[in-house]
Write a structure and sequence with these properties.
5-stranded mixed beta barrel; alpha/beta; 802 residues; 24 strands
Length: 802
């Protein structure tokens, strides 16, 4: 049954039935509701508003459930303040607001308690749980009235106990509203238990934090008291820790360095700040660290450089075999220094596969120049602050890696080796490669500002040597600032000399052996290079030599022998079976052709396989290929179709045969256009069922008209062919100029045939029958006169070999 009562909206509080509560009333609507209630049996409907900040609530701003209360007393205070004492009567539901002004008048419906039976056992268990939860809460919560605890322990009515606890604990009004809206006494008391448990946990954490803060304050006060006592004792003993004298010491060091005006002024200002600080304060520690870091830098310290070319060349040759370009560049620096003393520092980038000596050459360069040396690895660096440092306002701030390396070098003209510059990355903290732009720019690095130092430092006299495995991951602006020197893969002969001169003495010493106790014949070294390693550098070779030394040491100790001799025939006793077999020039099956590929660790042989099966003309391309390589297959197929008549193959082969082009080692991604002529040769080999020569390899891009276009990586590709016992290589004619970069030992072992059209490759690379070859050659040459035959290339081969 509904009735109409004045409505008073409560801010941040809830009134429960059978509970008495007083509160202040100040809003006009609320005062008018009180006046109206006093005229109507003193009954009023109290309901909480959802948001405390709402000043003039409407129906949507009020909760649905509230309490019908009786006004017991109204007290008026000066200043239009009114306090009212009410007693809750019953739960009720606000169905609608009949008016808003001058006061809220609502249609109220009484709430009936649902008649749901609960067993006595469950009832007693819940009552006990509620009392236990309240006891735990009372231990950690703000102090409760003793009467409250007694009433909780003595009340056996579930509904009244839930209302009483909710009314008397300082929990959030939303929690109290949840209790008020629960009509079933059993579930209402369960809700209260959950609130008590949750609030008790919160109070426990608050108490722990309060205790920690209190203990810290007590410790700080104790430390201050003891520090003051210590200062008084030191004053009596004449041992005062005076920051003024410490600052004077710093000022003397600053004046002795003869720094620039800007740097000197900054450091002196920091020293004066230190003089005004407490000795043990945190700020004084920061100031000391800053001054110590700045004064440790080599502002004016330089080392005298070597000016004798012969001595520098001797040092470089003693440590490294080969590397002609790098050595020549360093000797050029020394020569220029003799003619002009104020040459700024250079930036050199050494690019090459792993294990060719890029990192170790840096120390040799420093020794050859007579400079100090420092190395910093940039692999994995992804924070710009690693290069420029952190601003000293941060806790634990420190200078960047460049300034740290300069402090380690102890001179302003060292050789700084920036290792693995291609391995830098970036994230949300910044891009370190962008910070390197200033470091590696000779026009800017004379005033490099580290975030920690906040003053310019001159890096213009530093010789920067960077190393990388590939240039692809280096940003173009950064690469533009460096002089790139490419280090090629080692030839077998170079590896042999490196092993004899450097690796073997090193591993012998490391394993406690001597040249007398372990003798390795030259044939065994060559066998290790060719049969147990296949790499661009010499790291694997050094590991194999280490294995050999350990096996020999074990044999010397076990068998009580004085020395061990390793020959080609007994090498497998130490290193096991041969891992890599040298390819023999034997006839293969049709459709298999050797190509040449470039990778970041050097060149490799790339086989192309083509197979034909009866079908409907489907083209299948496999081997984890990129877009460019897939397009090369299509271009090669188009050309072969256009030359079907000349090679006497069926014109409809692309309709009656399914063609499958496969590149082995499918787990390795492959892309690039340089396999074009290899694909075309393999396709024709499969179509005419004539195998390709196994000691022939080729590289070059193909157009749909059969033209052979230039490619890159000639040096690495030819080195791979040399390692795999290839005797003939077909290369684009426009790449002939690149053969100047190829090692002489490779040019002596391999015949290079320059080609402008793919027909030249096809005619020379396949095992044609003599009569058939003559017929095909005649047909092909007659179709376009610019295709040279193999006989016309004899003169070119001779020129290349020279």
């Amino acid at each position: 049954m509904s009735e109409y009562l004045p409505v008073l909206a409560l801010r941040g509080m809830v009134v429960f039935p059978k509970m008495m509560l007083h509160f202040d009333v100040g809003r006009d609507r609320s005062l008018e509701a009180l006046r109206s209630a006093m005229k109507n049996h003193q009954h009023i409907f109290l309901v909480a508003q959802r948001e405390i900040a709402t000043d003039k609530p409407v129906l949507e701003d009020l909760y649905e459930y509230g309490t019908v209360a009786k006004i017991c007393q109204i007290l008026r205070f000066p200043g239009d303040n009114t306090r009212v004492l009410v007693e809750g009567v019953s739960r009720a539901k606000l169905k609608n607001l009949m008016q808003i002004d001058p006061y809220l008048l609502g249609e109220i419906e009484a709430c009936e308690t649902p008649n749901i039976r609960v067993s006595d056992v469950r009832k007693q268990a819940l009552l006990q749980s509620a009392r236990d939860a309240f006891s735990v809460y009372a231990e950690v919560a703000p102090k409760l009235m003793p009467d409250t605890i007694i009433n909780v322990l003595s009340n056996n009515d579930m509904g009244e106990l839930a209302d009483y606890i909710a009314q008397n604990i300082p929990t959030d009004y939303t929690n109290k509203q949840a209790v008020l809206e629960e009509l079933h006494p059993f579930r209402r008391l369960q809700t209260v238990c959950k609130i008590l448990s949750r609030d008790a946990n919160v109070y426990e954490v608050e108490n722990e934090l309060h205790e920690q803060v209190h203990e810290q304050m007590d410790k700080n006060q104790r430390d201050y008291y003891l520090r003051e006592q210590m200062r008084a004792i030191q004053n009596e003993l004449g041992e005062d820790e005076d920051t003024r004298s410490e600052a004077d010491t710093y000022l003397e060091k600053i004046n002795a360095l003869s720094l620039s005006e800007e740097v000197s002024e900054k450091l002196k200002k920091e020293a004066e700040r230190l003089a005004k600080m407490q000795y043990h304060s945190a700020e004084s520690t920061v100031a000391r660290s800053y001054l110590d870091t700045c004064l440790a830098l080599p502002w004016n310290t330089t080392t005298k450089e070597t000016t004798q070319l012969s001595r520098a060349k001797k040092v470089l040759d003693a440590d490294h075999y080969g590397m002609t370009k790098v050595k020549d560049r360093i000797l050029e620096i020394i020569a220029v220094r003799q003619l002009k003393h104020d040459v700024k520092g250079q930036i050199i980038c050494l690019v090459g596969p792993p294990g060719v000596g890029k990192t170790s050459i840096g120390r040799s360069v420093a020794e050859a120049l007579g400079r100090n040396f420092a190395r910093l690895s940039l692999g994995g660096v992804r924070d710009e602050a690693d290069i420029r440092g952190h601003r000293k306002t941060y806790i634990g701030a420190m200078p960047g890696r460049i300034m740290t390396a300069m402090a380690q070098a102890k001179s302003k003209n060292p050789v700084l080796l920036l290792d693995e510059i291609d391995k830098m990355s970036s994230d949300f903290r910044g891009d370190p490669s962008a910070a390197m732009l200033e470091v590696l720019d000779s026009e800017q690095n004379h005033a490099f500002r580290d975030h920690y130092l906040e003053v310019p430092f001159d890096l213009s006299e530093v010789l920067f040597i960077t190393t990388a495995n590939t240039l692809d991951t280096i940003p173009r602006p950064l690469l533009d600032r460096m002089e790139v020197i490419e280090l090629p893969s080692y030839t077998t002969e170079e590896k042999f000399h490196i092993a004899k001169k450097h690796l073997i003495p090193r591993v012998l010493e490391k394993n406690g052996l001597s040249k007398k106790s372990l003798k390795i014949q030259d044939a065994a070294i060559y066998q290790m290079i060719e049969g147990y390693t296949r790499e661009a550098g010499v790291r694997t070779l050094e590991r194999e030599l280490g294995t050999l030394c350990r096996k020999a040491a074990k044999k010397i100790v076990d068998h009580k022998v004085s020395s061990v001799t390793v020959t080609r025939s007994n090498l497998n006793e130490f290193l096991g079976v041969v891992r890599y077999q040298t390819e023999k020039a034997e006839i293969r099956e049709p459709g298999v052709v050797n190509g040449l590929a470039w990778t970041s660790v050097g060149g490799e042989i790339l086989e192309v396989e083509v197979n034909l099966v009866p079908g409907s003309g489907k083209l299948e391309i496999t081997g984890n290929l990129g877009t460019v390589m897939t397009e090369s297959v299509k271009a090669a197929l188009t050309y072969i179709r256009s030359r079907a008549d000349y090679y006497e193959i069926p014109n409809d082969f692309y309709k009656t045969k399914d063609i499958h082009v496969h590149f082995p080692e499918g787990a390795t991604p492959k892309d690039g256009p340089s396999a074009g002529i290899t694909i075309a040769t393999a396709l024709l080999s499969a179509l005419v069922q004539i195998p390709a020569k196994s000691n022939v390899a080729m590289t070059g891009e193909i157009s749909i008209r059969g033209r052979v276009l230039p490619i890159g990586g000639v040096r690495e590709k030819t080195m791979a062919a040399y390692r795999n016992n290839i005797k003939t290589i077909y290369i684009p004619a426009e790449n002939m100029k690149d053969l100047e970069e190829v090692d002489q030992v490779v040019k002596d072992a391999i015949t290079f045939i320059p080609v402008e059209h793919v027909d030249t490759v096809i005619l020379g690379a396949l095992h044609w029958d003599h009569k058939l070859k003559a017929d095909v050659e005649s047909s092909v040459v007659s179709s376009h006169s610019d295709v040279p035959t193999e006989h016309n290339n004899e003169r070119t081969r001779a020129v290349i070999r020279q």
